[in-house]
Amino acid sequence: MASRYQELDNNARSAYNNGRYQESALLYEQAQRLAQQQGTPAQAFECGVWAADSWGSAGHSLRALTLLADLLKAIPPSAEPIDVWNARTLAFEISRVYNPQLNTLQRKLAEFKKMAEDNTHLPQADVHWSSANLFQAQGRYHEALEQLELAWAKNDENGFFKYHTAESA
User: Fold this and answer.
1) 163 phi and psi, to 5 degrees?
2) Which of 29, 61, 112, 157 is the most exposed place for a label (fewest CB within 10 A)?
3) Of all residues in the chain, what percent carry a pLDDT higher than 70?
4) Could you count the other beta carbons within 10 Å of the beta carbon of residue 7?
5) Contact criterion met (CB below 8 Å) for 151 and 165
């Protein structure tokens, strides 16, 4: 029989994949708490990121950002790089929309670039996609389009969906 954690994780993933984002968020938060109680911080961090993603998809972006801020304050050493990456990119995108402080966003973008350079297994296209979104928000459309072209070319199906890149272009 599957563990309670695995059951929660499977149910959360199923809810997410079927567009039931609020349900997914609540299930991921339960799985996060259980992982914390069981002493598995990497799993707790991953579930927290998915809970935040789910809250954002459910239209509760500020709740997602609050959860991400808490997660990013104390990243466990055992956290998977892709989970840290996803937390940072999601926090960047929500901040870009709800708290667009250019200097902060540029600093975070520089951190993404450094992280991507240090770990080539991360979705390299995401850096360009986030750069494009920041340029677009500034009305720098030519530069945004250049970044979207790079995002399209470097997309390896591991980061943001490729159709988002086409849609943005």
Assistant:
1) -65, -25
2) 157
3) 96
4) 14
5) yes
